[in-house]
Amino acid sequence: MVLIGVLIVIIGFIVRINPLLVVTAAGLATGLLAHQSLYDIIEQFGTAFTTNRYMAVFIATLPVIGLLERFGLREQAESVVAKIKAATTGRILTVYLIIREAAAAAGLTSIGGHAQMVRPLVAPMAEGAAEAKYGKLPDHVRDDIRAHSAAVDNIGLFFGEDVFIAIGAILLMKGFFDQNGIPSDPLHMALWAIPTAVAALIVHSIRLHRFDRSLHKLFHRENGKGEK
Amino acid sequence: MWLSIETVYIFLGIVVVLGSMWTFADRQNPKRFTSGVFYFLYGVTLLFGSIIPPFYTGLLVLVMVAIVGTGGLKLGSYQEATREERSRHRDRLKHRLFIPALLIPILTVIGVTWLKNVKVGNAYLFDPKNVTLVSLGLATFVALLVSMAMTRSTPFMAVKESRRLLETIGWAALLPQMLATLGTIFTTAGVGVAVSNLVKAIIPTHSLFWIVAAYCIGMALFTMIMGNAFAAFPVMTAGIAVPLLIKQFGVDANHVAALGMFSGYCGTLMTPMAANFNIVPAALLDLKDKNHVIRVQVPTALILLAFNIAAMYVVTLIDL
Prior knowledge:
The complex is a heterodimer. By secondary structure, chain A is mainly alpha-helical. In chain A, helix 5 (73-82) packs across helix 7, helix 6 runs antiparallel to helix 7 and helix 8 runs antiparallel to helix 11. Helices cover 74% and strands 0% of the residues of chain A. Chain A has helices at 4-15, 19-33, 38-51, 62-70, 73-82, 89-105, 114-134, 139-161, 168-179, 186-191, 194-223. Chain A has 2 domains: 4-54, no CATH class; 72-223. In chain B, a hairpin with a 2-residue loop joins strand 1 and strand 2 (123-124). Helices cover 74% and strands 1% of the residues of chain B. In chain B, strands 1-2 form a two-stranded antiparallel sheet. By secondary structure, chain B is an all-alpha fold. At the A-B interface, helix 1, helix 2, helix 3, helix 4 and helix 5 of A face helix 1, helix 3, helix 4, helix 5 and helix 6 of B.
């Protein structure tokens, strides 16, 4: 019965009802089915909403980023890249992937982020590189490049951070095994994270290389000319 | 302590509440009153979250959801700088524009590594439990002062610009907190146990390969449902890895832990439930399809999930 909440979420996302409504409905339904009172459920909403305010910290970066955008930060990022001949969308994103993942592996997870790095710097650079080669980009291509920029930030962070022994994930696993009386050691857990971290870097770099090729093909076909 | 995470929330709250004043006054917004209420209430929950009794915060949350549900949240006008204005400023400032943007990560790292245990008087400078978040908050504040001085802008201009970005994100800004709320309700209602029982009922417990596959795929699926690998790890590991892999086959916990967690991260890459990683960026980058980031991530996630299963199988074979 408690799985009905899960079902509501899955159906809601498939039918594409506003996720905020889906999530609220799923929360209310799950709580009611578990025989909690409406007062308790609303109180849980309030408590959890307050304790998870840390997820809103990206708002702190918006005044700076917004101000710099007003004064041309994104255009500046685009123009820097346009001057570099070897710069392609895929290569720029690969460089960012390496920086993001290496920094996370060294415990520096705060180098990066969608609000402070991807929107003002990484995405404009990736777009700028494509524009310098192919001219004005159609909307769907621009969206593809932006989505790839956001994806690189996630992938670099996720698969880099567990290599660092003092990161939340490793400490959580250590705590879990301690509780269950199973011997474990952060250094060894972090060591065994390395193969996947390397695989992520290789797999995604190959995909970015192929993305470059698909951009190249697309513009060759569409207007019959290649690079400028 | 001098600077706690609460200080950062107050900063966020002030930015959001002040921004909502422009929304109330925005005549280009067809729903300026309800839109204004939405952002005002959101700012209030950030500012006073720890003071307002949880039940009333819950009610405020429901009001915000109701505004979104009835179409009361609309975009307005933001008096953006024209292309000419931007290029005129850009000619003057050039590469200096990068300085404040890069100050954010640099100062955050400095704060995390060197100011972690600094005491001023008898109190810690930073909240020891939330060093990263407090460092980020302080770094953005310093970067804001630098960029205001550099561009000769007032704080109000900065708030107006942050309002432009926040309203681009719109309702998606609330989603991560709401999903975390749902996760809590799922946990207290026992959804995790139900899912791990389901997985255990399906897999053949004598086959090492299928146990490994069930654990990794289970981690990914459960993470997709909860939106958070940290919530999935204890449930799936206690349900499958500990009894079957570690106790039954004698596999070393150190060898499977990270691979299990990474399988969860593969799930994170594929779910709208991980809104802060997948949906908020899509809104922030103005993508038409809010699932566009997920679409791009799915191939990498599936390949790495397969890699994790293979790697864990090889490792467990060696351990036998």
